[in-house]
Amino acid sequence: MGSKGKIRYVFTSSNTSQGFHTFIPDLLLDIKKIYILKGAAGTGKSTFIRLLGESLSQQGYEVEFWISALDPVNPDGLYIPQLDAAVVNGSLPKAVDPRYPGGPGEIINLGIYLDKTAIESQHDQIMELALRVEKQNNKAYNILKDAAELKEDIQKANTGNLNKEKIQQLTERVGEEILGPRQREKHYFASAVTADGMIDYIDELSVTCLKRYVFKGPPGSGIATVINELACKAGAKGHFLEFYHCGLDSENIAMLIIGDLQIALIDAGGLEISSKPWDMIIDMSTCLDDYVPDLKYVNNSEVFRNYESQVLQAQKLLECTQQALQELKKIHARSMNFALVDQKREEIRMELCKLI
Questions:
Q1: Are 43 and 110 in contact (CB under 8 A)?
Q2: Euclidean distance between CA atoms 90 and 270, whole angstroms
Q3: Sign, CA torsion 259/260/262/267
Q4: Mean pLDDT of the chain
Q5: In what order do the strands lie in the sheet with 279-283?
Q6: Which of 47, 105, 128, 160 could cross-link 34 (Cys pair, CB 3.0–4.6 Å)?
């Protein structure tokens, strides 16, 4: 093929108020060729995915890395659009398996390259680390649940003043402007709660859009309502939609990209978004009747500080989880035959290249 292929990064999981959530099973539904990597932490799944993706990019293929909140540096999946193929980590906290027997989804067990005898002597340490990971994660998820409830309380402060008629008029106006007469959709995370804090790729993902509608306003000012209704209108007209969910609450949409129109709708609440000349800024406080900022809910208020404190506590617990996972990885990595893993990766690369 020609020059190096484009590389794109998207979050496909987050540590949410409902626990660990991943969109990988949904993203795999219509993909024709799927490889599912299995194995304990440290058996090389993320490295397998990253090196394979980089190799295919060098050959000119466009690749999409699916980034995990568990370790934002390493990918949990790889999608190659031109080949309609994916390689994913199947040993996530919520296991990824073939949807049905005989369907797309070849399992590759990297655990077969692990020296089981060498591991047996460290069984007790492995169990202790695994239990520590589970315990710290459960604590973090409980705190994130409390944080989400505080965030909901902040939103409720303005919900009572929401003018539904103005919301409907705004939705129709923006909809008429961007949606011509003419469904497929994908779901990712716009941000993720990680051991390194809240990370988002909103600017990077929307930079190629010809126009961005950036909704600004206090919590509860109807941003979610407008974006959801516009998503329904766009979907009904057959446009290709990419939903980017909130890292804390997977039910909330932080950004919608209408791919074939190259338009982004962004909920800018609480996010640092760089301004672009083609951005359309929409002030949602105009949809609140008699709006006066409630001093109880501004960013320096006790409620908001409590919310940020909860998120920080969860982050510290996730840091402890990541440390334990790193120790687990080191134990397993010392007993892995990575030369055989490399051979298997090259075998998969050659199989994929034959698909076109």
A1: yes
A2: 33
A3: negative
A4: 87
A5: 106-109, 33-38, 85-89, 75-80, 63-67, 7-11, 184-189, 240-245, 253-258, 263-267, 211-216, 279-283
A6: 105
